[in-house]
Amino acid sequence: MKGERKLDRKKELKQLYKETEIEGGMYCIRNTKNEKVYVESTRNFKTMSGRRLLLNMGSHTNKALQDDWKEYGTDAFEFEILEVLKKKDTGYFNEKEELKKLEEKWLEKLQPYGERGYNRDISR
Predict the structure, then answer these.
(1) I need a surface site. Which of 1, 5, 37, 48 has the fewest CB within 10 A?
(2) CA dist 39 to 8, 79, 114, Å?
(3) H-helix or E-strand containing 10?
């Protein structure tokens, strides 16, 4: 009987996980020592922990961010959700396009280039 309850609970947790809505949008990694930011979009905010892992392992693709992570340490950085992508219930919705628009908006707003951040300005 005790084993059955354990199985039911496991089944219940799996179902709950499947029903949990995946949220994506814009986030930034902020260096609290020099105030530089790295702005990025994601389809799933849970991937932010993967970014932290990459930085801890020394294998993030952004060299400047990786160098500062190594120099200042984990505690000098904060992960912050900037905006959650609002999905439409009806009609056409292209998640990739909408994330791109959000990314452009936040890159324009924060200008995370040069002394202000870790992103590369590809428009120049």
Answers:
(1) 1
(2) 42, 10, 13
(3) helix 2-19
Q: How many CB atoms lie within 10 A of CB 65?
A: 22
Local structure of residue 55 (DSSP, 8 states):
H
Query: How do residues 103-115 score in pLDDT, each as one tens digit?
Result: 999 999 999 999 9
Residue with tokens 């060299």: 63
For residues 95 and 101, the answer to whether their CB atoms sit within 8 Å is no
pTM over 0.85: no
Q: How far apart are CA 25 and CA 43, in angstroms?
A: 6
pLDDT in tens, 36-72: 999 999 999 999 999 999 999 999 999 999 999 999 9
- Which helix (H) or strand (E) segment holds residue 108: the answer is helix 95-110
List of E strands, the chain: 25-31, 37-42, 77-84
40: helix, strand or coil: strand
22-116: CATH topology: GIY-YIG endonuclease (3.40.1440)
